């Protein structure tokens, strides 16, 4: 514990930064993916184009992406913005497919019924489709959250200050405790984020509780690496 | 009054679902659209609240062409009941029933109070109000569906195989209930089914559709039974197989009453004495049993 005690401030600083770097991409992933996915489920062509292209994004290796981003968006090479943009792209890539599954999971019957009741299209989206897509959206967000927190670490390679620093630095200086601290701290962040998401789900989707199909919902969320499959 | 005038519907993929249909539906009656699967019943029904627009022809409600009415407003003024209830799984029963009043801007507390009354109307315990749809049985969900359709007090009630997914006993119960509600509330009901017995049980007017969305016959159940328009109708109502044929048994010597039996010899009912003198054949009210 010696290393941790003497470097406690460093660890706290890196953890805070790690959280900061994770939160933005997770939120961007959600906000961008939901409308894209909603458009994707309107037709075969839309689905093929949107799902394929966003899935392709996920296949871009992270390091080259970090390196070319400054050239594309005109940021400084060592800016955290590069990392945030790159991670947002990955988050969108995962989330679009999950969200498309989420909207597909809304029963046709219920959509028809809401139309027959006299919901306008807009009301139908906000009051019926969006909440009913909630459980599968949530499952997708849990995957995005874990994946983003893990990926932030890679950012140290382009100079970002986060828990990944403890891995590289600990390895170079052969301090096992430093590496272990990095791992445990990232795991803790991932756990806390997951817990927050689950609690949000409880709060926002009370009708879904005691629902035996939860694992089925999680199953429908995959990493979008099978690019050929456009459903 | 609802009127179909020369209505044709061809879906974008080329399917001709309804072909030149004329129907007049009198107010405060139950009209049953009956026909086999794919004969265009749902399409016809949905043209009334503009979930489907006709390719040609007009649908008029109280003399107004529905094509000139904003679909969202139109739908809020017409009750609609779907096969599986179509309840919103994320809203409690009381909120499901209040859906349309809330969409129309009725205050939440007033809508809720009205919801609870409607649960009484359709014979549901108010204790169910705060449950979610999946916590109810199929029959209960169906009743909630009816309550929801009644919530905005519409003059017209459209029902698309509303009792198709419940067991036969509950189905009979719901049919009886519907007839009671209809006479109590004075609604114009348009009811879709592919079950000819259900059609006979409910209809003031029957519209028998054949594949391709063509009207084979329109008439009261008695008219349809007495004069099937063609072989298709005869076969559809089971008349050609003798299914609808009832026979009178000799007067029971002890009670002096006459028992009616169906084609298989099973008792179907009793003849009231004043009818017994008419003698042969069976009058429509006997057939209802
Ligand atoms: N949206 C649509 N696009 C294309 N064809 C359709 C559409 N909806 C219905 N059809 C076709 O139109 C015909 C009539 O369909 P409809 O749903 O009105 O029949 P139905 O009598 O209600 O059948 P069921 O008893 O099975 O519910 C069918 O051939 C059906 O395949
Ligand atoms: Mg149908």
Automatic annotation (TrEMBL), chain A:
**ABC transmembrane type-1 domain segment(s):** 15-201
Cross-referenced InterPro entries, in alphabetical order? ABC_transp_perm/SBD, MetI-like, MetI-like_sf
Q: According to its UniProt record, where is this protein located?
A: Cell membrane; Membrane
Q: Which PROSITE patterns match?
A: ABC_TM1 (PS50928)
The cross-references to Gene3D superfamilies, in alphabetical order and at most eight, read: MetI-like
Q: Which UniProt keywords apply?
A: Membrane, Transmembrane, Transmembrane helix, Transport
The way it spans or sits in the membrane comes to: Multi-pass membrane protein
Q: Where are the transmembrane segments?
A: 20-41, 48-69, 81-100, 136-159, 179-205
Protein family per UniProt: Belongs to the binding-protein-dependent transport system permease family.
What is the name attached to this protein's record? ABC transporter permease subunit
> What species was this sequence derived from?
Agromyces allii
TrEMBL record, chain B:
Q: Tell me the domain of life.
A: Bacteria
The family database entries (InterPro entries) matched by this protein are listed as:
AAA+_ATPase, ABC_transporter-like_ATP-bd, ABC_transporter-like_CS, P-loop_NTPase
PROSITE patterns assigned: ABC_TRANSPORTER_1, ABC_TRANSPORTER_2
Q: Where is the signal peptide?
A: none
What's one Pfam family here? ABC_tran
Q: Does the keyword Transport apply?
A: yes
Stretches the record annotates as Disordered: 270-289
Tell me where in this chain the ABC transporter domain is found.
2-237
GO MF annotation, one:
ATP binding
Which controlled-vocabulary keywords does the entry list?
ATP-binding, Nucleotide-binding, Transport
Family to which this protein belongs: Belongs to the ABC transporter superfamily.
Q: Which PANTHER family match?
A: OSMOPROTECTANT IMPORT ATP-BINDING PROTEIN OSMV
Annotated protein name in UniProt:
ATP-binding cassette domain-containing protein
Q: Which organism is it from?
A: Agromyces allii
Its lineage opens with: Bacteria, Bacillati, Actinomycetota, Actinomycetes, Micrococcales
């Amino acid at each position: 514990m010696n290393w941790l005690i003497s470097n406690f401030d460093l660890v706290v600083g890196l953890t805070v930064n790690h959280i900061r770097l994770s939160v933005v991409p997770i939120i961007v992933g959600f906000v961008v993916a939901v409308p894209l996915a909603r458009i994707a489920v309107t037709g075969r062509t839309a689905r093929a184009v949107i799902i394929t292209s966003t899935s392709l994004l996920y296949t871009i290796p992270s390091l080259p992406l970090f390196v070319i981003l400054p050239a594309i968006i005109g940021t400084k090479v060592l800016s955290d913005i590069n990392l945030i943009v790159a991670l947002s792209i990955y988050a969108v890539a995962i989330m679009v497919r999950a969200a498309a599954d989420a909207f597909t999971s809304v029963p046709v019957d219920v959509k028809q019924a809401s139309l027959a009741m006299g919901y306008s299209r807009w009301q139908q989206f906000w009051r019926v489709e969006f909440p009913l897509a909630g459980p599968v959206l949530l499952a997708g967000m849990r995957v995005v959250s874990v994946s983003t927190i893990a990926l932030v670490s890679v950012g140290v390679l382009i100079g970002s200050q986060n828990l990944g620093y403890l891995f590289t630095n600990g390895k170079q200086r052969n301090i096992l405790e430093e590496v272990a601290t990095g791992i445990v701290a990232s795991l803790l962040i991932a756990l806390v984020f997951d817990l927050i998401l689950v609690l949000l789900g409880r709060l926002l989707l009370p009708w879904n509780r005691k629902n035996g199909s939860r694992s089925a919902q999680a199953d429908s969320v995959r990493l979008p690496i099978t690019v050929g499959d456009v459903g | 009054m609802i009127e179909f005038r020369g209505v044709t519907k061809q879906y974008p993929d080329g399917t001709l679902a309804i072909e030149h249909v004329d129907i007049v539906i009198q107010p405060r009656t139950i009209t049953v659209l009956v026909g086999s699967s794919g004969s265009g019943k749902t399409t016809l029904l949905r043209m009334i609240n503009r979930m489907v627009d006709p390719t040609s022809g007009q649908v008029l409600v109280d003399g107004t062409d529905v094509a000139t009415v904003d679909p969202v407003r139109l739908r809020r003024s017409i009750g609609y009941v779907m096969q599986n209830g179509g309840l919103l799984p994320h809203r409690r029963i009381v909120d499901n029933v209040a859906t349309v009043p809330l969409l129309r801007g009725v205050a939440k507390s007033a809508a809720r109070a009205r919801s609870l009354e409607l649960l009484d109307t359709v014979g549901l315990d108010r204790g169910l109000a705060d449950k979610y749809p999946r916590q109810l049985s199929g029959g209960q969900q169906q009743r909630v569906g009816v309550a929801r359709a009644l919530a905005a007090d519409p003059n017209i009630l459209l029902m698309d195989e509303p009792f198709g997914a419940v067991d036969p006993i509950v189905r009979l119960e719901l049919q009886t209930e519907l007839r009671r509600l209809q006479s109590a509330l004075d609604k114009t009901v348009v009811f879709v089914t592919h079950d000819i017995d259900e059609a006979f049980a409910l209809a003031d007017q029957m519209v028998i559709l054949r594949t391709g969305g063509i009207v084979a016959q329109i008439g009261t159940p008695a008219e349809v039974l007495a004069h099937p328009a063609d072989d298709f109708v005869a076969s559809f109502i089971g008349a050609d197989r003798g299914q609808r044929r009832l026979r009178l048994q000799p007067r029971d010597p002890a009670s002096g009453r006459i028992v009616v039996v169906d084609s298989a010899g099973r008792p179907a009912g009793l003849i009231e004495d004043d009818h017994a003198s008419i003698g042969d054949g069976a009058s429509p009210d006997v057939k209802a049993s």
